[in-house]
């Protein structure tokens, strides 16, 4: 099992933004020292708890500070950007990193971001996301002149000058393009099905219980077995990446909030105080506002009132001594049927030494004991 990082990030709103960003930089540098293989960086425009508005800028900052770790946009929120802008910025990052880039795509789920960009309803944003991904891939392969007309975007270069390269867009370092990924939240997710059809890397969220994560792979597998463009999912404008039979679980990323300490008591004492548990107070409130609180339930019969930060710690997070965490991750691994990379969610360093120790134990004692 590989070990990676997913940085939402999660920082208390009252904390200095500058300090938060410096901490995020140090965290990724430390992850590379410990042998983490990848770091996925989130993006939100109007969330005080998750304050990175431009994950491509953060990745650009980290490229010269690192040598081996790969980076992923987790995710590029397609409806909030013009596809041509996404295409050239990601291509540029791919060159700057000499191919250490994954490209994750999604539609976003923040109501105030939708207001900020005057976006339509969620279903329409889903269709925008699919079209936008196709447009990005077309632009990565096209030579001018071209004219791509969709439902939401019309992208064209009609009058290039080949003698001086006028009208030429930057193409990625990796050919035909960097590996593509999609974030998956819901059980039975259309995103999971589409990712399976198209051979995209699936990234399961950290905010649902183990049984929902297992359902992610079942849905992904259904998509992989279907003809591209079936099940109400539009066919891509260019050929999809072939899955070549059964999808490979080694490509599956599963995210979890993880806190490891030298003893079970120490881990739980820290989990129940400070920014770790506060981050789940925030996330529960957000899920209530978006009518998605049911996603956190390990059993649909659980009353909404029972979904508390303590409930999330017990049913969704991985907390404890190295032996405790090995047992819990093995349970997740067995329940899901196996996955290739565990993504540790980056939580605020309200106690730098304690969080660095947690990363040490995870990298040196927990993950080496897993399949």
Core attributes:
8-stranded parallel barrel; 16% strand; alpha/beta; 12 strands; TIM Barrel; 371 residues
Question: What does it look like?
Answer:
The strands form three sheets. An eight-stranded parallel barrel has the order 1-2-3-4-7-8-9-12, surrounded by seven helices. The protein has a two-stranded antiparallel ribbon with strand order 5-6. Strands 10-11 form a two-stranded parallel sheet. By secondary structure, the protein is an alpha/beta fold. The mean pLDDT is 95. It has a single domain, classed as Luciferase-like domain (TIM Barrel). It is globular and about 70 Å long. The longest helix has 20 residues, at 122-141. Helix content is 41%, strand content 16%. It is built from twelve helices and twelve strands. The termini are close together.
Give a short overview.
With 371 residues, the chain is α/β, with parallel strands linked by helices. The chain has helices at residues 17-33, 55-62, 83-96, 111-116, 122-141, 190-198, 210-225, 264-271, 274-289, 309-315, 322-336, 352-366, and strands spanning 2-10, 38-41, 70-77, 101-106, 146-149, 154-157, 180-184, 201-204, 253-256, 258-260, 318-320, 341-347. Helix 3 (83-96) crosses helix 5 (122-141), helix 6 (190-198) crosses helix 7 (210-225) and helix 11 packs across helix 12 (352-366).
């Amino acid at each position: 099992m590989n070990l990676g990082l997913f940085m939402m990030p999660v920082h208390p709103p009252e904390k200095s933004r500058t300090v938060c960003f410096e901490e995020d930089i140090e965290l990724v540098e430390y992850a590379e020292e410990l042998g983490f293989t990848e770091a996925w960086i989130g993006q939100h425009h109007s969330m005080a708890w998750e304050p990175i508005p431009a994950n491509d800028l953060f990745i650009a900052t980290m490229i010269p500070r690192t040598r081996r770790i790969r980076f992923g946009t987790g995710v590029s929120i397609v409806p909030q950007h013009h596809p041509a802008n996404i295409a050239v910025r990601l291509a540029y990052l791919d060159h700057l990193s000499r191919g250490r880039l994954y490209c994750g795509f999604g539609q976003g789920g923040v109501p105030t971001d939708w207001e900020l960009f005057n976006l339509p309803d969620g279903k329409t944003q889903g269709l925008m996301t699919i079209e936008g991904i196709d447009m990005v891939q077309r632009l990565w392969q096209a030579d001018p002149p071209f004219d791509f007309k969709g439902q939401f975007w019309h992208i064209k270069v009609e009058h290039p000058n080949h003698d001086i390269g006028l009208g030429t867009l930057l193409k990625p370092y990796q050919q035909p393009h960097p590996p593509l990924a999609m974030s998956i939240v819901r059980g039975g997710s259309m995103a999971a099905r589409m990712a399976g059809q198209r051979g995209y890397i699936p990234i399961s969220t950290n905010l649902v219980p183990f049984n929902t994560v297992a359902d992610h792979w079942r849905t992904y597998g259904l998509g992989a077995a279907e003809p591209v463009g079936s099940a109400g999912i539009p066919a891509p404008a260019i050929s999809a990446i072939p899955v070549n039979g059964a999808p490979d679980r080694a490509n599956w990323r599963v995210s979890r909030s993880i806190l490891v300490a030298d003893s079970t008591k120490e881990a739980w004492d820290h989990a129940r105080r400070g920014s770790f548990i506060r981050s789940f107070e925030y996330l529960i409130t957000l899920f209530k506002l978006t009518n998605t609180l049911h996603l956190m339930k390990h059993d649909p019969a659980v009353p909404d009132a029972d979904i508390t930060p303590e409930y999330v710690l017990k049913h969704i997070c991985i907390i404890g001594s190295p032996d405790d965490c090995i047992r819990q991750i093995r349970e997740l691994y067995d329940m899901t049927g196996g996955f290739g990379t565990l993504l540790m969610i980056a939580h605020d360093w309200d106690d730098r030494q304690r969080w660095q120790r947690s990363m040490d134990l995870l990298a040196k004692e927990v993950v080496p004991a897993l399949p």
